[in-house]
User: Fold Ubiquitin carboxyl-terminal hydrolase 8 isoform X2 from Paramuricea clavata.
Amino acid sequence: MNWLAKEAGELCRHLPQEDKDGFKETSKKQGTKDKEFQPGQIKNPSKKEHLNDMNKKGRQYDIHESLTSLSSVSLSDNSKIANHFSGLHQYDKTCLDCYKRENVHAKKFFSFFIPLDEDITNLVDSIYDSLTDVVEMFCEICNKQTHHFRNGYLLELPTTFKRFQIDEDQREKNHAKVSLPRHFSLSAGENYRSYNLISCALHYGKRIDCGHYTAVVFDDNSVLEINDTVIKDVSSYWENYVASTVYVAFYSVIKETTNDGMTTFKKQQG
Assistant:
């Protein structure tokens, strides 16, 4: 996938300094701020070999794949990208045959999948609902594969949430409408965070492997859609407009309350 220099500059804000320098050098060399360049053209990034893999002939990445591919390496390096988007969750599981209950070790997550369920229209309810499910796994007491009820808990919340869905078994786009609140709050243990919706990537097309992307940016007093070189004010109708086309939505933390009662207000990202 081609990256626009201006889009790479936005992503650059969350990269290590050596990667920022690489993006800036490449963008400057291109000469025109809107000129396209490939990931493999980036000069001296700390993970250039990984970005070059993204530039192999015949291989294309969409917006979600690009972010996930870039950040998967960053997670192992404990970089600023990992710290910005990752959280911590833990599950306990109960065998539905023998009722043995067991705690599963806490794990760091980067992608938090939220199903598009017609019965759940509230974003916060969707997040908590996605932490509970019934899965098939091996039970040591029963000595066979059995169904387990799995219940999850959020231990640490990320600074920024992103929301998307791809059906791995089908290439058809899921056209279910998604109601996105401008603000919502989540708790993890005794910690509490409030989030603001700051931007969305919209997808126009019938299939997930083709189509056109635009960006929607939320400011204090306006909502703007950026479509290549055209900027349109969609403040008066963004809810219905975004609901049927949103592919990735970014929420950034604005307030945090910890278990000691301390409240911190964050400067909104974006």
In short: The first strand starts at residue 3 and ends at 4.
